[in-house]
């Protein structure tokens, strides 16, 4: 029997007051539909989401429809902006919405346990983080009954009532082809007690599904409704390099930028939501975007050619200095310790990882880039946060990247991570700072639990603090903290960071440079015995960094 229906009807039929609703990041049309269909009502939803950062998920949190959020991260990610979302911060500070913080891997593992009918899930993430105590009702410290490991935790399964996900294609019975990057993949849908609403780019035949059964991740028995929703992931990127005859499109960066700008003002955001969400359905949404814009988004993105001319006109900015120092640190650690996988974080840590890989490759040292939401073995897209997905040698989900590639039997990864705050022990906080919700763990805790770590951040007493109030990532695997003023490392046998290298302008004396760093450091500065002054970014380093760097960091 066909499960094909329109999106509005599917949402109205499935969503009831008090239910727990799981959304995937790509399911932007589904998110808009929930906002539109129930605007102004008191639903008291529990929202389960790996990353509350796609489309209008933040607006759903702030809409009054949601009472509780269970998520891995809350930040916006785009070519023009990476960071907290004002509407989510407002919901957090008002106390109208409660937030339960998890990491990408631990959240996915809880969904997996529910889908598999297991009484609990175990993870090597979260140990030593504030999330363990904060989530005491759903997590306990555990000992390996076989005596092979001591640092692990057990977590309660997470069973949503309903899941909404966007996929490439399905037949009318709901057999669904789910494509990477998957983050938590189809696990939320598989775990949902009442079944999933699937929005798809294409409705295909049963014969098509049979021919591509190796791509089906969600059998029809788990699906309650199938909705044909072209461009359902807009303004995000979507498509498959395997099924090239089916629709593919790039991220709409202009749309994202306009939305971020509107979200800075409650009045402008209200007008934006009226225009793009509340007063139009998906058909009207696409009509408003226009055929020419949609056609342009379906054209493949051209990658920037490698630079041929060394750019020396402008001196390095603080961000460029930071990235150059971090790039050197990554390369030095790989040379010394043989790391062969580099986890590319989000934010200021993006460029150093991919730049270091290029430098190492010129020396004949091979490393592989990974991103936690599902890409492995890719090449960067210069000037973009997303990789060149056509170049990836593996496309997966968060469980495979964090649980296997980084945390599995062959652990040799180096994670390059950003942080809102870091303390003298290397503990980082990206969750709650001065009562404000920042971006949450994302995959940073998952990586920091199993990998050596380099933390990348600007230097100030707001960023480098004596002790973080919330531990997103324990610092026991942190090898270095790199700032735009210098590099901190841990001495052999010590867990405390000390300044090992610093940069300063040619007119600045060593004494003055160290005094300035001490003033910008939130703890009593300790210097290594062999602390040294190192050169600022060279012309070749600047050329590479400026080629890779997204525009938002060019200040």
Description:
The chain has 555 residues and is α/β, with parallel strands linked by helices. It is built from 18 helices and 29 strands. The strands form 6 sheets. It has a 10-stranded mixed sheet with strand order 18-17-16-15-19-24-26-27-28-29, sandwiched between helices. α1 crosses α2 and α13 (318-337) crosses α14 (350-362). The longest helix has 20 residues, at 318-337. The termini are far apart. The model has no long low-confidence stretch (mean pLDDT 92).
Topology, please?
Layout: H1 7-14, E1 20-23, H2 28-38, E2 45-51, H3 57-61, E3 66-73, E4 76-77, E5 82-83, H4 86-94, E6 98-101, H5 104-115, E7 121-123, H6 130-134, E8 139-142, E9 152-155, E10 162-170, E11 176-177, H7 187-191, E12 196-203, H8 206-211, E13 216-218, E14 223-228, H9 253-262, H10 266-278, H11 282-289, H12 291-297, H13 318-337, E15 341-344, H14 350-362, E16 368-371, E17 375-376, E18 394-395, H15 398-406, E19 413-418, E20 421-423, E21 428-429, E22 432-433, E23 436-437, H16 444-448, E24 452-456, E25 464-465, E26 478-482, E27 486-490, E28 497-502, H17 510-520, E29 527-533, H18 539-548
Parallel strand pairs: 1-2, 1-10, 2-3, 3-6, 10-12, 12-14, 15-16, 15-19, 19-24, 20-25, 24-26, 28-29
Antiparallel strand pairs: 4-5, 7-9, 8-9, 10-11, 11-13, 16-17, 17-18, 20-21, 22-23, 26-27, 27-28
Task: Please list the strands of the largest sheet in the order they lie side by side.
Answer: 18-17-16-15-19-24-26-27-28-29
| Beta-strand percentage range | 15-25%
Rg for CA atoms: 23 Å
Could you report the average pLDDT, rounded to the nearest whole number?
92
Morphology call: globular
For the record, give the distance between the C-alpha atoms at the N and C termini, rounded to a whole number: 57 Å
Oligomer: single chain
Strand segment count: 29
If helices are DSSP runs of H or I spanning 4 or more residues, what is the number of helices? 18
Reported for the largest beta sheet, the result is: 10 strands, mixed
Uncertain segments are none
Structural class call reads: alpha/beta
């Amino acid at each position: 029997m066909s499960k094909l229906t329109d999106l509005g009807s599917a949402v109205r039929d499935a969503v009831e007051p008090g239910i727990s609703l799981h959304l995937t990041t790509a399911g932007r049309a589904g998110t808009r539909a929930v906002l539109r269909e129930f605007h102004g009502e008191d639903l008291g939803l529990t929202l389960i989401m790996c990353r509350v950062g796609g489309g209008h998920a933040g607006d759903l949190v702030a809409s009054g429809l949601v009472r509780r959020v269970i998520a891995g991260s809350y930040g916006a990610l785009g070519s023009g902006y990476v960071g907290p979302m004002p509407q989510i911060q407002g919901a957090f500070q008002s106390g109208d919405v409660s937030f339960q913080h998890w990491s990408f891997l631990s959240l996915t593992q809880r969904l997996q346990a529910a889908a598999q009918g297991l009484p609990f899930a175990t993870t090597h993430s979260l140990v030593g983080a504030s999330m363990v105590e904060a989530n005491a009702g759903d997590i306990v410290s555990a000992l390996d009954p076989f005596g092979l490991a001591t640092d692990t935790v057990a977590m309660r399964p997470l069973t949503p009532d309903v899941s909404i996900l966007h996929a490439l294609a399905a037949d009318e019975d709901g057999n669904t082809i789910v494509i990477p990057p998957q983050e938590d993949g189809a696990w939320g849908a598989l775990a949902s007690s009442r079944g999933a609403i699937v929005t798809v780019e294409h409705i295909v035949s049963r014969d098509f599904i049979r021919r591509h059964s190796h791509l089906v991740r969600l059998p029809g028995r788990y699906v309650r409704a199938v909705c044909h929703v072209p461009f359902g992931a807009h303004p995000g990127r979507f498509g498959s390099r395997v099924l090239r005859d089916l629709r593919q499109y790039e991220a709409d960066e202009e749309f994202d930028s306009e939305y971020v700008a509107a979200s800075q003002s409650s009045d402008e955001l209200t007008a934006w939501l009226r225009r793009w969400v509340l007063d139009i359905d998906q058909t009207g949404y696409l009509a408003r975007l226009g055929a020419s814009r949609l056609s342009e988004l379906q054209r493949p993105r051209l990658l920037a050619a490698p630079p041929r001319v060394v750019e020396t006109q402008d001196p390095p900015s603080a961000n460029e200095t930071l990235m150059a120092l971090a790039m050197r640190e990554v390369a030095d650690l790989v040379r010394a310790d043989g790391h062969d996988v580099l986890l590319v974080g989000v934010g200021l840590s993006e460029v150093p990882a991919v730049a270091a890989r290029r430098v190492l490759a010129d020396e004949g040292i091979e490393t592989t880039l990974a991103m936690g939401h599902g890409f492995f073995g890719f090449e960067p897209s210069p000037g973009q946060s997303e990789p060149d997905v056509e170049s990836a040698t593996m496309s997966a989900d968060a469980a495979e990247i964090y649980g296997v590639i980084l945390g599995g039997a062959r652990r040799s990864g180096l994670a390059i991570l950003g942080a809102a705050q870091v303390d003298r022990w290397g503990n980082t906080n990206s969750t709650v700072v001065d009562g404000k919700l920042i971006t949450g763990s994302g995959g940073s805790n998952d990586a920091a639990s199993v990998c050596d770590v380099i933390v990348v951040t600007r230097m100030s007493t707001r960023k480098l603090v004596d002790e973080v109030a919330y531990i997103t990532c324990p610092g026991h695997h942190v090898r270095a903290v790199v700032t735009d003023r210098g590099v901190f490392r841990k001495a052999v046998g010590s867990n405390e960071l000390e300044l090992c290298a610093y940069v300063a302008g040619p007119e600045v004396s060593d004494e003055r440079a160290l005094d300035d760093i001490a003033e910008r450091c939130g703890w009593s500065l300790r210097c290594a015995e062999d602390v040294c002054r190192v050169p600022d970014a060279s012309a070749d380093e600047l050329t590479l960094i400026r080629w890779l760097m997204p525009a938002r960091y060019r200040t």
